[in-house]
Please model this.
Amino acid sequence: MNVVPDTSVVIDGRVSAAIEDGQFEGATVSVPEAVVAELEAQANDGLDSGWDGLGELKRLAEFADEGRIDLEYVGERPSAIERGHAAEGEIDAVIRDLAEDLEATFVTSDIVQAEVAQAKGLEVDYLSPEVRRVGTLAIEEYFDDQTMSVHLKTDVVPMAKRGEIGDMHYQEIADEPLDEDTMDEYAREVVDGAREATGGFIELSEPGMKIVQFRDYRIAIARPPFADGIEITAVRPIVQTDIEDYEHADELKERLLEHQRGVLISGSPGAGKSTFAQSVARYLNDHDYAVKTMEKPRDLQVGPEITQYTELGGRMDKTADALLMVRPDYTIYDEVRKTDDFEVFADMRLAGVGMIGVVHATRPIDALQRLVGRVELGMIPQVVDTVVYIDAGEVSTVYDVKTEVKVPAGLTEEDLARPVIQVTDFQTGKPAYEIYTFNRQVVTVPLEDGGETTESGVDRIAKSEIEREIRSIARGYVDVQLKSQNRAVVYVEEDDISTVIGKGGGRITDVENRLGIDIDVRTHDENPHKSGSNGGGGGGRSGHGNAGGSASNAQPAGQIVTPEITSRHVIIPVDSNHGETVEVQAGGEYLFTATVSRGGEIQVSRGSAIADDLEDAIDRKRPITVVPS
Model:
């Protein structure tokens, strides 16, 4: 008896099983080189199927050494063109042709291969794919009622996060580390279980990484070379809540049912965002709303009546296009993180779909600020009208978001009226923040009682803009002091008075009109806060042109940076001063003031006046420096 196995039956291990059962005892097993090439390619890509198949070939070699079969390798390795068309059946055709030439029995566990081979007149032995049935997984033994996640890795003692939401502890849960064989067995059992279980599927399969959903468990399996060892991370929800369990439940329910909303559910990792999102999804579904989800990976625990969608063709925007045809009333978008995610969220919301997004944020306002720069500022309240912040499993803060054309809090001139995003505390009804543009920059201003501001980013920006304007005129040292939100005093060298004021006051009037602030120009000798020599004002910052100033007035040393120009932004990396306001200078000359992000960078939108000045300085190879304000 001569048999030719294809790749599928070698991966399944069914050939060695048939030999042990006596079915192929004494047979000549002719393994096509095309099968070896496929298995080798899969193993090189880090796929389990490749390693499974190579393991089967080793078992066949052992049977041949024992004299139970004759083993030979036949045919030629497929060409690069044939391997490139493997998905179109080129390799399968090569294997079938070998079976025909050898007049051998063609063995496969691929139903399509079997049907094609029979149609071509080959003798076929179809072996149904063998799937290991799994009731429970071995890794489930590491879970108890308070375990949210289990973390296993080769040569490391098993760890777990245990406790209650908001009070989780990462701790050892065993005495001895796991060896590689045990980890490999765990990983294979998880994948087999996902393939077999009704509530299981493989969410992601890439070389070195698999993400599996097995009933209530989301399991990530990492392998070398992607990871430095086999690692398994299994996560499951430890509580299931109803919206009635949360504070402000009645108001939130009324708000959600009133009409389709744009909601961001925010909070730190492990705070209970997804748990709250699940309760909202169930509540909406129970009140006659068609609810869908967009997730990658699919992680929310919802009933079967709520369809969970993932990426279509590797892209969430394609999923959004499909959902717009389905027309859900509400869509839960789990993990809105990247710019593309925010753009898809905004597009669906503006199309009239109620959207609920889950966002990582350390403060309630941060969730809204993540939209800034990704969505046009004036459209934010149309995209998101409610922000819910979850802390330790509880609804900590709820913000109402709307737009009003007004003079921003702290400013008084009527000609400064502009669209302002008002962020109001849902519980107290008091304004908490205002977001608006000020001199081409977007600022977020926290409000105190009565809507007044402390000396804030707006004050610093206003001061920096005045300094920039006057320094472009004056040759000497410039000191600016803000007297109120609409009035400032500028102290300059006596020789610069006439230059700054201009003929008939025309020049300073132009500056006032541009900035919307009354400016009083005086000499340094009139500065009541004057200290030190050369007119150095103690209340202001040293001007860049004051070459003869004292040491106390010297410009603080800055950090030389290398900006990166992308299609949409000029990005300035900053090693320090994260979250602080800094000046950006070119060749020692002031360009603009900005706040360094927590990620350590400043982004300037291309096409703006600031970006044009910055790009011009870069083109002229002027050193770009970041100086603390």
